[in-house]
Specification:
Number of helices: 11
Structural class: alpha+beta
Largest sheet: 5 strands, antiparallel
Strand order of the largest sheet: 9-10-11-12-13
Radius of gyration: 26 Å
Number of strands: 18
Strand content: 15-25%
Length: about 425
Amino acid sequence: MGKERFSAFDVCAEVSCLRRSILGLWCAQIYDGAEKNSLLLKFNKPAYEERTGGSSGGEVSEARKVNLLVQPGVKLLLTRYAKPSTSSGKSDGNGSKEQQSGGPSNFVQKLRKHVKQKRLNDIRQLGMDRAVLLTFGANETETKLVVELYASGNAVLCDREFMVMTLLRSHVDKRKNLRIMGKRRYPVERFRAFRMPTREAWEDALRGVYQEEERAVDLDEDEMEDEKAYEEEKKRREMERLANIRAPQTLRECLCRGFSFAPAQCEHVAAKAGVEKGMLAPLPLESEDVKGKVYECIEEEFRWFRDVTQGNVFPIPEVTCKALTMELLTSSSSKEEEEEEEGKKKEPQLVEVLEDFSPHPMKQNENRKTVSIDEILGRDSSGEEKEEQNAFNDVLDEYYAKLELQQGVVQRNRAEAQALKKF
């Protein structure tokens, strides 16, 4: 019904919030999440003294726990609505853990062994991809947790040299010579590194030559005993790649494959550049002037990505909603009431539901109904500036909670409507 999966730009915005919120905190406990393959990491946030006014004293905040929800393939965010799986055990009022019959999963047990009671020393996005790297501990005890938020998702625990210690699922792609499995090095270098776009890259993307595909021809020299055979295989794959180059048919295909843009970013760029048919405009574009405007909008998106990553800009979320028609649930108890109801014109019941979110205002949303940050957070308009630094995470936490409730209401309404039709 509404957007659930993160885009690369959403990951960039969320990681910037996480660096300001939990970087340097200690991991107190790890649980299985309520969703399949999801994780819930609890961090201890110590008490601190906040100075007020001009006095030397101030209010002292209480120590509390911060919950990081990790759902591979979907999202990663701090949440107030923590729901550990019942199989992971639960905590009573004294903080002790009552173990349930199932117990935590093998993956969580491994995480507890190597991550629990360690300090989160670094968290960053891997290039421009939907993947996040969390580094716990230091020196010999350093461990790394890679969270993949694309496709089916994955969570991989590695040592300081990126040797895989355990993972949610193994993955092999012979076409790209990719093997992600236990006791092998995790290929962290495969992710597309951030680099500002150039005119040449833009022209190449229009022809179907994409920078990220150039790394897919790399081979593992250790697995090729004969050096000559290695060079021949590498040359063969390069020729195969060049032979399979196909020019993109639409602007959306070009931006998605050439610059890793999500459809929302593609539509934003097309609308801002004034492309007549939007992101579905066929290529080549109608004029050089339009092509230049599209490139300027691409540069602007990359500058936003760079500034948010460096902490110079705070992501300002934008949430849109739409009107959804709900069926009227009426059941007549007598024949007279049925005839009376048939004579009346039933008016559809319109309900506003959340539809989409983005890390910054989108051009295509100017004519759509949006929900303000204050409205979705349930606060007045006089929010403090420090709260705006992590507004993206706070808004997403409320967005997912409300979206889950709305989906439940809609599903119940449809089920009840179908049941009433049988009477």
